Recover the amino acids of this structure.
């Protein structure tokens, strides 16, 4: 589904990603972990098409196409979804209205008729039940005055509505208490199936108590320096990122 | 002929028409004031950003045959007009034949007639109060020609079930039209009314409307006032709305400016009694070369009043938006609560906004605040929407609509709110899905 090769990217002339290689197949859950400043969120942003990042080298093949050549809206329409670390508050726009526009623009892109009000409401109800979110939250202005947990649940609700093929979740667990992490994880697990893939970006291991990854990658200084099965996350939790840092720094000095 | 000379001739003729006219004296005083003050120039601080001198270099005819038919009105009647009380001005003159008053709780008269009969005291006492807040030639010019105006009384204790719609029609089919509508609305004790005012120019020539509407609000009365400006790019106006709350009362206003040439709005809210409350909202959503100047005054002359003001602008193309908001808190007006905010989004490189909040506070126990922002659309918010599959155009439109929302939701009559929302959607090119 996704094949990242030798990806280099940066912002305002500062190099952040320095040769990322990563392959994700349908049905898989990947986790990228790493210390602050290692480039995890940059990778998520570059994949979603955030425009202030500049890709200097490498390629990203997504569903047989070059992802980097696509506009951010087309990436979304082709099934790439980024759950934001900091979802934006938009007073005056309800989640319902926002999702109606998004769903129908994506349908239009695929040559489908827009959903009418009844069909849209039915879809809303179904997804609300799936991710356990309340109607009142969705009628309120988008993310305005939402708690951290509410914002992240709203992200997952949007993900349920748009049914992406590749969901990139940027620090979805940050700022959440254990209950909120459990609720969010349950929803992600429900939405995951053999035809889609999830890329989790996180600093902490605790999310992985609820979402079981197929692969864990450790990012440091703009590169993936270690990959392994889910047990790697436990090792990181135990030893901290320092052991990776030391390993790498020693290797680079040698 | 020079426009000002023409005005003088027309004035002399008007004053000779009817010796029993109750407004002769007030017009004379105003005419003298106009001759002294002249047309405001940009040297006048209150007119710094709005140049209207050019509008007086055109030739105007006062005696253009202004007749229009009721059927012609149908093209621009506001929604739900079948229930509303409709007051129609054509080229500045109140037309009783085109107007329809459906409520028996309303008295609607020609202003000169009201000045002679039982409403004489109300008219004498209140007509022209706005001059204290706009001591300039343009206000005087309207008063110098105060005739064919309208007087409205909302009866004591009566809350109107349906709004008053006021249409200002400029017939500019056979020449440039110059209109000076004048109105005085007296809302009696414990009465309630919704007023919606709008402007329409017919024909291809230019129109210039210099309007004054004065509203007097008595004890426990509630007034909602809405102004919708969506006229042609050949239509200019100076539109003064003077709301005077003479006893403890409540007012609420929303001014929507969308299209026109040069538009100057003066909105004054005067608290002449304690415990008055007023909410002032405005939205200017501009394109092309439209120039909109909103001057507002909230005058806290008495203690313990509350005002909240929010004006927002979305300014594109070569358009100009101006916000000048004054709050006066007089020496005796302790316990005043007065808030003001002005927020602007510029959506083109060549658009401009001038914002000027002015607080003049002479009391010491008050709560006042003001704030003002001018910026462009939030890029992070745009990316958020685009990352969900919205086109950049849709994302921009949704964000601008969201920005306008807290103004639009204050338009309380639902048919009018929907109508304005539709106009805004069209302006922002939103596909209504």
């Amino acid at each position: 589904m996704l094949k990242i090769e030798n990806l280099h990217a940066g912002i305002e002339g500062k190099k952040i990603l320095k040769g990322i290689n990563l392959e994700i197949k349908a049905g898989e859950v990947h986790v990228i972990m790493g210390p602050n400043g290692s480039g995890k969120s940059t990778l998520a942003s570059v994949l979603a098409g955030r425009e202030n990042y500049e890709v200097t080298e490498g390629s990203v093949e997504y569903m047989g196409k070059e992802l980097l050549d696509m506009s951010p809206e087309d990436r979304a329409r082709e099934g790439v979804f980024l759950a934001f670390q900091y979802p934006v508050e938009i007073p005056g726009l309800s989640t319902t209205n926002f999702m109606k526009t998004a769903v129908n623009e994506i349908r239009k892109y695929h040559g489908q008729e827009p959903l009418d009000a009844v069909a849209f409401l039915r879809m809303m109800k179904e997804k609300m039940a799936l991710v356990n979110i309340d109607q009142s939250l969705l009628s309120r202005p988008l993310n305005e005055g939402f708690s951290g947990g509410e914002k992240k649940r709203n992200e997952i609700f949007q993900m349920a509505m748009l049914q992406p093929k590749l969901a990139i979740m940027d620090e979805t667990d940050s700022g959440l208490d254990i209950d909120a992490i459990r609720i969010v994880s349950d929803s992600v697990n429900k939405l995951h199936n053999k035809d889609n893939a999830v890329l989790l970006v996180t600093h902490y291991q605790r999310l992985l108590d609820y979402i079981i990854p197929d692969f864990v990658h450790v990012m440091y200084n703009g590169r993936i320096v270690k990959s392994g099965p889910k047990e790697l996350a436990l090792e990181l939790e135990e030893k901290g990122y320092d052991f990776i840092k030391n390993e790498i720094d020693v290797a680079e000095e040698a | 002929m020079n426009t000002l000379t023409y005005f003088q001739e027309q004035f002399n003729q008007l004053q000779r028409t009817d010796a029993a006219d109750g407004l002769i004296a007030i017009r004379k005083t105003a005419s003298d004031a106009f001759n002294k003050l002249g047309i405001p120039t940009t040297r006048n601080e209150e007119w710094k950003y709005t140049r209207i001198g050019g509008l007086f270099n055109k030739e105007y005819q006062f005696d253009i045959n202004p007749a229009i038919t009721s059927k012609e009105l149908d093209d621009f009647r506001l929604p739900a007009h079948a229930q509303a009380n409709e007051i129609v001005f054509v080229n500045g003159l109140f037309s009783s034949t085109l107007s329809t008053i459906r409520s028996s709780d309303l008295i609607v008269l020609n202003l000169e007639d009201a000045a002679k009969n039982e409403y004489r005291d109300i008219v004498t006492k209140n007509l022209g109060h706005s001059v204290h807040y706009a001591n300039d030639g343009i206000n005087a010019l309207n008063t110098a020609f105060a005739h064919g105006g309208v007087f409205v009384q909302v009866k004591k204790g009566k809350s109107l079930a349906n709004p008053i719609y006021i249409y200002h029609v400029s017939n500019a089919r056979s020449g440039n039209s110059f209109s000076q509508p004048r109105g005085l609305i007296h809302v009696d004790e414990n009465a309630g009314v919704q007023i919606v005012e709008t402007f329409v120019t017919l024909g291809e020539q230019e129109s210039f409307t210099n309007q004054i509407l004065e509203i007097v609000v008595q004890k426990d009365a509630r007034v909602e006032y809405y102004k919708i400006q969506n006229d042609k790019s050949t239509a200019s106006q100076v539109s003064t709305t003077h709301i005077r709350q003479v006893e403890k009362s409540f007012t609420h206003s929303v001014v929507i400016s969308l299209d026109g040439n040069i538009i100057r709005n003066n909105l004054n809210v005067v608290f002449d009694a304690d415990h008055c409350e007023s909410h002032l909202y405005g939205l200017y959503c501009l394109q092309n070369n439209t120039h909109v100047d909103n001057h507002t005054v909230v005058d806290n002359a008495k203690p313990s009043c509350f005002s909240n003001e929010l004006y927002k602008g979305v300014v594109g193309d070569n358009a100009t938006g101006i916000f000048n908001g004054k709050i006066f808190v007089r020496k005796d007006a302790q316990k005043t609560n007065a808030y003001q905010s002005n927020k602007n989004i510029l959506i083109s490189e060549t658009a401009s906004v001038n914002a000027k909040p002015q607080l003049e506070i002479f009391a010491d126990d008050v709560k006042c605040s003001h704030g003002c922002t001018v910026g462009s659309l939030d890029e992070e918010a745009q990316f958020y929407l685009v990352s969900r599959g919205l086109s950049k155009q849709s994302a921009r439109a949704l964000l601008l609509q969201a920005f306008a929302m807290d103004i639009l939701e204050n338009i309380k009559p639902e048919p009018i709110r929907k109508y304005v929302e539709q106009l805004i959607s069209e302006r922002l090119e939103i596909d209504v899905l």
